[in-house]
Amino acid sequence: MNDHNTRFTEYAGLKLAYTAQGNPDSETIVMQHGWTSSKEAFSAYADAFVSEGYHCISIDSLGHGESDRPTEATLYSRRERANHVAAILNKEAIEKAHFIGYSMGGWIACCMAEHHPNRLLSLMIGGHCPETGTTEEVGGLKSGEDYSFERILELYDFDWPEEIMPAMKHTYDYLEDVSGHEKAVSESGVPVLLWEGRGEAVICEKGEEMAKQNGWTFFSVEGDHMQAALNHEPNLPHLLEFMKPAKP
After folding, report:
1. What whole-number distance in Å separates Cα of residue 36 and Cα of residue 171?
2. pLDDT for 181-221, tens place per residue?
3. Among 100, 124, 156, 199, which one is least packed by beta carbons within 10 Å?
4. Where are the domains of the chain?
5. Cα of 218 vs its chain's centroid, Å
6. CATH top-level class for 2-246?
7. For residues 227 and 239, what is the distance between their CA atoms, to the nearest angstrom?
8. Collapsing DSSP states into helix, strand and coil, what is residue 112?
9. Does pLDDT of 2 surpass 90?
């Protein structure tokens, strides 16, 4: 069953939006997008995975897409982000799932490893390296440049309406909250894969070394941060091959 219609569930009074495609009796893959994106970012991946027999859930992270945009900062914390995913799994009566997260979604994958490892079959983290904040990812630690939310607004013309600014700021600011994430992922008890674009020198090099130290799978593809996600065709064979041994 391919259902592209948005579904909703509630957690702590918040509306969370997602889509579900494929046979719900098959293994589930949860897909979580990056900052400023939405569940539609994984459409090509979902269609490919469904064609391979998987059941796919794509989530609008809190503050994005059709999900609510509360103004309280603590609602975007590591624990709460993981709880949002767990709430959707509960709504769909899914005990465990593979989890694919890109960029901010990779950070949420680390949150799942930290707070709900028992809900995971495997972790696939792209465009992000555990225990690596945004400033380090873009080279700010070496250059001394400021990559605060306010600076990002100066660098890029997002043209957001004022009412979504608090949600965008809180989601961005929490991406620096990464302490303990490498340990959480390494102790999650599930297979782990990292993938990075070769145009992102910092996390590509750090991710490859971290994968080697922890016994995780690693691959890199041509392109920068956006290209490494949007060009799904080079990624799909790696992701599908990785999930095979994770099947019970």
Report:
1. 9
2. 999 999 999 999 999 999 998 999 999 999 999 999 999 99
3. 156
4. 2-246
5. 16
6. alpha beta
7. 16
8. helix
9. no
